[in-house]
């Protein structure tokens, strides 16, 4: 009887221990599975973060390339504006010069015609009046020339002879640069290589 009681006593102690051990093993298994899931999720998140970093770097490269290409295009546009301004000023200068010389040629013709007519009248007056020929002719020639010159109109009558336009290039360039807020002609250089991939034109 005592032995039977002792076996029961031992069993009542050992069985809960084994039962508790099995429970702990199951709990540990659940924890390990949960940890594996967390590790997998962390690995996925890290890969996603790495992909995002790579995408961000790629986007930053593209943005930087676009900024360089836009700056290059703006430089070329500014250079084109400066050159167009210089060419416009040269064209206007050439036109003004042509007008001035046309005016001067007309004035010379008017002066010559007036002088010829005045001289003729001087001869007539001298013949009719029987006066001295030389004074009458000189007076007639001078009066005719003055009348012919004063009858001329145009830029040559109010403006001095213009400077050759070929000597005005530096002044026209300085004026064009000042309008752009520059002191020297911008140097754009060749088109950056990455601009071709971004569909920028080198023309």
TrEMBL record:
The chain crosses the membrane at residues 6-24. Keywords: Membrane, Transmembrane, Transmembrane helix. The keyword Membrane applies. It comes from the Bacteria. This is Uncharacterized protein.
